[in-house]
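anyone seen this seq b4? input:
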Amino acid sequence: MYPLNFSPLSQATSTDWSNIRLIATDMDGTLTKHGKFSASLLQALSDLAASGIQVLIVTGRSAGWVSGLSSLMPVAGAIAENGGIFYPNGSEQPIALTSIPDLKLHRQQLAAVFAELNLKFPQIQESADNLFRLTDWTFDVAALNLDELQTLSNLCQSMGWGFTYSTVQCHIKPQGQDKAIGLLQVLQEYWPKYSPEQVVTVGDSPNDESLFARQYFPVSVGVANVLKYANQLQYQPTYVTNAAEAAGFCELASYILKSTS
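predicted toks r here
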């Protein structure tokens, strides 16, 4: 649907990797391998931290899940719920990136939207982590095909809500809430000294598409499994790794670390 417009990471000669100061990365399918963190991934994160390279996780996972993650891993912090909540490293207090004046009412409205979708798609099931969410509502992506996902998106839009999906979950969310908007807010507040060229964004699925928007993030990387979604992405990553999932992130980390040594 859209022309491919990226290069293999191995040919990324036009980017000064020694200039990178922060990596903003998706988690599931990007930092994980078959859904798990590997020893090599944790070593890469530790090596980046030791070299003064900040890593910020930008995930669709729930606020409750991410609150612990941000303090347990060697990262600068984590954005949860696709740009809805931010947890700085070492803090269990969420910082709202999306304004929600009445959280109880907001959750009731999300539940009503899900109920409408469930009438048309009886097979969809609320995700197990939905109880720990604040800004969005999730259900398992399961075996939904592209046409069904597009129909779900259209239905959400018609009811005044946003919709996105990853390799794991579908998200009903406030319109205008996405990873790029949340990341830009956090960068402006916490890392205002970094220019766009000093930040590299990383992802693997349609849920990360906004992180590939070059008007905001000129240096972006898709791990190799992003190629599965190449024709579904309006915004393409600048570069793609040879390896998939966590090995692809480690490949990127190696490029950056070699340039700073």
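The chain has a mean pLDDT of 93. The two ends are 41 Å apart (CA to CA). kinda curious what u guys think
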